Amino acid sequence: MSFHFQEDPTLERHFKGHKDVVSCADFSPNNKQLATGSCDKNLMIWNLTPKARAFRFVGHTDIITGVHFSPSGSFVASSSRDQTVRLWTPSIKGESTVFKAHTASVRSVQFSSDGQRLVTASDDKSVKVWGVERKKFLYSLNRHTNWVRCARFSPDGRLVASCGDDRTVRLWDTSSRQCINIFTDYGGSATFVDFNSSGTCIASSGADNTLKIWDIRTNKLIQHYRVHSAGVNCFSFHPSGNYLISGSSDSTMKILDLLEGRLIYTLHGHKGPVLAVVFSRDGGLFASGGADSQVLMWKTNFDSLNYRDLLSRHSKRVTPDPLPHLMDIYPRSPHRHNAQNGTVEVSGHTIPMCFTNSTDFPLGGRYSVNAVERSGIPSSLTSTLENIVQQLDILTQTVAVLEERLTLTEDKLRTCLDNQVLSAKLFLTVLHKNNASKWW
Fold it and tell me: Which ranges of the sequence are coiled-coil (predicted)?
């Protein structure tokens, strides 16, 4: 039995027009258009006003790998396996300008927040930055040792994050054009990278099924999610910075609450790998595309409600799913809990999009081992302490879940006992009346 509440994500529209895998998507800044690219070599601009026709732009000679609207909405940039980047006018004319400096497939493209630059990632192992106004190549960032899958500007444009098949995530300073940090520890290719809305964190996804979030101020891995059963191909931060949606080759999309550090929704809509997910600029919508050639547009809904109210409503549903395993999501290092955002484990429930949740720790928490690291204690001992504290935190979470189950059990027992006492009283009353009638 399924229940549907208004606050759950809902499928708004279904766009059909691509003849092959949908590889990328982006909303216009005014939310009136959605751009998608495909292995059919076509760029589609879907007009979101009712009954408005879509535009199909033809020009690339190979698979389109990335698409991004300019901040003004007056241009759309696309990248392709044909080694070029195109700058389109998203109108019925569909005119485009070609950028070419890469010597292999271009994997991603993105505008800077001021709309003056583009950043691209390529199989030629380079990240390149372009000037939009003069339509020319500016400079390369060359340190990757294998294909570069994705590159993104920070919100202020001072940094670039990139990732690729060399299993690294790199952070670049755009003024000095130097690599200023490297994040490793991947069991496979790093597939996608992006900054959160404040620019304080970057997230990266991997072919090893993981999602990782790093605080670039402290260079620490602060959240590590294992919620997919296959490689994670893409993700998108909600503009608030409180949520993240990911798409995977396991055919699902997952929505994470980053403040609570928990998985709150699993969405099933695509048949086959999900290759593109993106929130609209205001966060009210998100779109997805995949190997089934479908483009789906969803209404977010859940962000408009108080989170605790959402949890309390879900807890009243029947037919609960089994509680998730606590190791599905785990912290790299322990964090102090914020009393205002304390985690409460609630069993998930089946709705049109499977609702599940797990536990972790708040984003941005401070590490209790930082003081140890600063004191000069050997890193091996620090690592051991981290592991011990991590196990203690997991044990604490387990105890919290058990306590909640006991509380629920006690409530049920109390209700049963109350019902039995009431039944006994009714029985005694009836018996008393029968005896009294016999006596008279």
Answer: 385-412
